[in-house]
Predict the 3D structure of the following.
Amino acid sequence: MPASRPCPTSLRGCSGDGGRRGVMTGTGTIMRQRQRLLRRYWHFVLVAVVGILFAVLGSGGGDAPAPAPRPQGWTVASEPGSVLAIAFLDGDVWVGSKTGLHRVDAATGNYLGRVDAGTEVAHVRALLADTSGTLWVGHLNGLTRYHAGQTATFTVADGLPDNRVNALAQNHNGRVWIGTANGLAFIENGKIAMAPETTRLLSPIVNSIVENKDGELWVASTSTPSGGVTLLNGPDTETFTPVRGLPHPYVNQLLVDHGGAVWAATGQLEEGGACQFRRDAKGWGVSATISRADGLPGAKVRSIFEDADGDLWMGFENDGLALRTGRGIVAFNESDGLPHKEVTCIAGGPDGEIWLGTLAGVLRIEPGAARRMKHN
């Protein structure tokens, strides 16, 4: 049997392919290919133009629907953009976002402006106003101390385990704990030290830190499947994972409530929920869980907060806000006036107002409006 010959560049097909493709001249093939490509090109152009017109004009040919009106007592400052952290200091609200550090008037919710805390403070992920009146700013480029208009920034060169700072907390002794993407650190007397407790964590990716009333340190790790909650009590370590009742190993935030119980907001994609830890005669354990089955609007609980009435506020990644009172759970979304469907952080202001950080700014809910949300 003769060996197969290479196909000439001007032909489609040769004896080596058994004649299955057929044989055509190069000129005829090129013309047909050009015609097919032109037809496809104009088809795609037409589809794209129709799609753009539909998006702009809407199915009825009119203007896009107006945003939902906000309830009385709700004020939005949209200028910070994607908000990830909120703190209170010197009578103002300090807002950390993907565009840096901002200030908002606590009494009105009006935007006051961007704070010049250094060019490196460009993507803020955590804020802490400590007992000395210093604002600590965790961001993607390290940790910045802001006090009386003066700043100092700490990085891995100064002892941080990683420049990405996700969480900040101050304990009863004044120590500031730092949670990074590569473990724990702390700062005392102006110096940073890496915490040996990192080796005891379920995962070094720290997303939240709280200290309970007994001085025990709770650390949330965000990792699937190895994440969870680590309880540090001196030399003792206790961990909580889904095997022990945690709704999901990806833990987004921790909260110590007024009764001393600890809450975890968990979830990733379409799985998760919130849970409560209580101590009994046998020690700490999951005492309650809240999920979609109980009325939550979504699975991934992004943020959690308890107000002065003991009611629980929960923010979601794609499903707005849920408020749990003694009467049950009520949900709020963009159609109810939220500026965005993702609620990243929740905090209580000095005068009883509630502050929500979203991906479209910060929302201030005055106390009277919060009460109406509970009873309507």
Observations:
- The radius of gyration is 28 Å.
- Residues 26-57 form the longest helix (32 residues).
- The chain is about 10% helix and 45% strand.
- Confidence is low (pLDDT under 50) at residues 1-34, 36-65.
